[in-house]
């Protein structure tokens, strides 16, 4: 028999009340938990309510892949100007570590940008490439400096074909002919677009020539595969979290869960942009989801540095879920990583952390007025109270967490410097503090930007007074100023009263303030990751308590697929 909302709330409140004798600050206790191994015994807590035998959450076992594995690597930009060298590098890194992560025998197809065409489809930036000062001046004053130092070449991957609908369809056609049990892995490293206001879940992955592949269209392709084939997605584009909805029929979270077994890991939620996609050729500057994900699985960074592979459940192996948790802990980006089981929990337990009034409309005059005469307590609107995250203590969260969520919770708590017993309340205070800091930086940035525009407008006026033709960048005089000795006259004008130097100074100030704002945003993102982790812990426990056996079984299947290990370690 399921526990009612009121019964569950009573249990939670009793747990919190019974632990209220603890001091308000748990700094020493929490630090000890953080410093010790993840299997450190936890403080004794009141026993949790018994779980009905027919609803126990089954222990998921790591699924180790065999040789029946097919991999699709898909990506690149939508055009040369959107096909950054970092995307090519992502594919090269994956190829370098494929043996280390257990994919040495897998059948891999790669479709990237324009494929094997000889066109210059790849954008890159070399810091050694120098731009003449006159070009920088004209770009700063009359145009834009973004991309002025970018260069182009053809990709060096020798892929199987272009990133196109035709290529994708050919891969699916090949896989659906195989009626044997097999597992498919699809790794997408490219760009993405958001869904519209009414269907935010239906986000986009961009293919070559600006072709848009929406979640709903992608699900139709996945549905072609035989039911015995499972599919795992690793997608790193902006708004990639929308593709977690491949769980559902037609990719629509309002519909039922698909009969096809699918799981996936995504760089960020469906409403946010993702990190990565840079033309910079310096790989030490590459920070994006798959960099950390493959690093965790291979034990080797893209620069060759050896790292300790995560093994949060101490079974001697690193699962895909552990790699995803490693990203949530260690990635210093603006990403908010998400996985399919997160989405499924929120499908089964929607709005679990909000309060909602349920008002029963009277069906007759008697029902409307008779209860009032007798002061019937059932006549008043019922308040269905959801779990208040702010009331859940650190020890209780740790008691309920699985090994992966426990690792994320402890590590992010330490990175954020949490020391109190109620982490949600502390996170709200920290969020407000960071918000004020960000607003202050934004004001300073705006002041510097206004000064920069003031100097720019002053120089623009002076140059136009001497050379009015440059208002048209294609005028012959403009070309002469850029390519002949007449450019010295322009440089003389911009250096008068050191206005150009002042402009450059304010531009650097703007960049400095933007860097500070970015640092704060990355800290805010860690808060978002931690709150999502806390919600996952509670939702998984609630699923056991009140959901149907069918829902629990489906969640277990997805969780087991997420815990796939691509290599058996002894």
Helix count, DSSP H or I runs of 4 or more residues: 17
Give average pLDDT, whole number. 86
Span from first to last CA? 42 Å
Uncertain segments are: 1-56, 355-360, 365-384
| Helix/strand order | HHEHEEHEHEEEEHEEHHEHEHEHHHHHHH
Largest sheet, in brief, is: 6 strands, mixed
Number of strands: 13
CATH topology of the largest domain: Rossmann fold
Q: Give the CA-based shape.
A: globular
Structural class, from secondary structure content?
Answer: alpha/beta
Quickly list its features.
10% strand; 3 domains; 3-stranded antiparallel sheet; 570 residues; Rossmann fold; 6-stranded mixed sheet; alpha/beta; 44% helix
Would you kindly provide a written description of the structure presented here, covering whatever features stand out?
- This protein has 570 residues and is of the alpha/beta class.
- It folds into three domains: 1-50 and 389-546, no CATH class; 69-116 and 155-349, Rossmann fold (3-Layer(aba) Sandwich), CATH 3.40.50.1460; 355-386, no CATH class.
- It is 44% helix and 10% strand.
- The chain contains 17 helices and 13 strands.
- The longest helix has 48 residues, at 499-546.
- It is globular and about 80 Å long.
- The relative contact order is 0.13.
Quick recap:
The protein contains 17 helices and 13 strands.
